[in-house]
Amino acid sequence: MRNLEAASMTANGVGELARVTERVWKALDEFRIEVPSWGFSNTGTRFGKFVQASAATNIEEKFADAAQVNVLTGASPTVALHVLWDLPGGLKDVPAIQALEAKYGVKSGSINPNLFQDQEYKYGSIANPSAEIRGKALKHLLDSVEIGRELGSKDVSMWIADGSNYPGTQSMRRRIDWMSEVLGATHAALGPDQRMLVEYKPFEPAFYHTDIADWGMALELARRAGPKAKVLVDTGHHYQGTNIEQIVAWLLHLGELGGFHFNDRKYADDDLTLGSIDPYQVFRIFHEIVSASEDERAHVAFMIDQSHNLKGKMEAMVQTVVSAQELYAKAALIDQSRLAELQQSCRLVEAEECFRSAFWQDVRPIVREWRQARGLAVDPLAALRESGYVEWAAKERGSRNAGSVSSYA
Ligand code: PSV
Ligand code: MN
Ligand code: MN
User: Fold this and answer.
1) CA 263 to ligand 2 centroid distance, Å
2) 374, part of any domain
3) How many CA atoms lie within 13 A of 337 on its CB side?
4) Would the ipTM clear 0.90, i.e. be above it?
5) What predicted TM-score, i.e. pTM, was given to this entire model?
6) Whose CB among 182, 206, 229, 380 lies 3.0–4.6 Å from 126's, allowing a Cys bridge?
7) Which of 115, 203, 261 to mutate to test the pocket of ligand 1 (most atoms within 8 A of CB)?
8) Domain limits at 169?
9) What is the CATH number of the domain that holds 230?
């Protein structure tokens, strides 16, 4: 791919620029990424919490914040909900959520069951040796499916925190069957437009083994459960150096990629803003998506799974959506047919240059033009600052945020 500015200097270049611009605008028009309700409230690490005065203190404020991010970016019309945190009354809370959807103009996105907080889950939820506790976990999953159906939300997104801390203390094999049984029963309850996404994670909170540690285990469990079960890739849930884009390529190829939880990390499941540590990795993942067929990528859900304790929550969320849009635009710049030719003829350096020169292009001017054409804020972060929304929220919510301090940042 030629430099965008250089391309515009020649007659051929003008044509090429128009084609590239069209491709990028189309990609941006289609790009949607869901924000997590838990990214707007005060959370912390296991060592403590630094309270932000402007953080959302209830579900209405989470909807308000999510709506604001959508107004600024034009890319996040849905918000992921966490059942126990956002619908503590379960199904009874559905009408209240529907009222918030109508009021704020954002819809409920994926429904996240919570199988990790209850004391009874000390030795696991769906992989617990106790049939009674597994039954309780199944009931919660079935409630989550019903909540999803009532809200018209497509995905029930499952992170299973089960595992053990010491070798020999649990039968990893028996636990496979127990999980299969519960996931199969959950699948049987899904409505025609619903899916269940199975997330994997090789570490934390368990320290020796986690029951769904990698994409192979998630895939096998999803397949056993049924055709509406797919794999969810959380970018922070891999060992250092894992080739995540290769996992993505495989899952796309198999038609088993349900979606992503996007975040960045330096060490473990750090939940940092997307692309803050390794934007090239995000670009490589997006390339796999962009280069897949429309069919293959049609049902891949993009979600953010981040929760910030130092950065302002609204700023971090807007920054993440904007970074995602920019990195997706970069992936859309790649001339796919040229790349395929170069790969086929093993012209390695040219292929690599074709690929990485797209990454090195500054797409911000094109993205700005697109925002302007779509009536969006040209610079969403600056617009957030100018709107005074965060200061307003800090005044409104400050007293409700325990120990609220002088500033939100
Ligand atoms: C815990 O690792 C986690 O970050 C998982 O990624 C879940 O998706 C998320 O929490 C919400 O439950
Ligand atoms: Mn996740
Ligand atoms: Mn995580």
Assistant:
1) 9
2) no
3) 0
4) yes
5) 0.96
6) 182
7) 261
8) 29-327
9) 3.20.20.150
Q: Which atom of ligand 1 is nearest to the CA of 199?
A: 8
On whether residue 322 sits in a domain, the answer given is: yes
Gap between the Cα atoms of 90 and 100, Å rounded: 16
**Residue 155 CB–ligand 1 contact under 6 Å:** no
**Residues 182, 140 contacting (CB under 8 angstroms):** no
Rounded to whole angstroms, the Cα distance separating 336 from 167 reads: 48
Place of tokens 């630094």: 50
User: Is 86 close to ligand 1, i.e. is its CB under 6 Å away?
Assistant: no
Half-sphere exposure of 184 (CA within 13 A, CB side): 8
Q: Confirm whether 133 is domain-assigned.
A: yes
Report yes or no on 351 lying in a domain: no
Ranges assigned E (strand) in 83-227: 107-112, 155-159, 163-164, 195-199, 209-210
Q: How many domains, in total, are found in the chain?
A: 1
Residues with CB under 5 A from ligand 3 (ion): 269
Instruction: Return the closest-CA partner of residue 211 out of 168, 258, 257, 159.
Output: 159
Rg of the chain on CA atoms, in Å: 22
Closest-CA residue, ligand 1 atom 4, reads: 305
pLDDT in tens, 254-313: 999 999 999 999 999 999 999 999 999 999 999 999 999 999 999 999 999 999 989 999
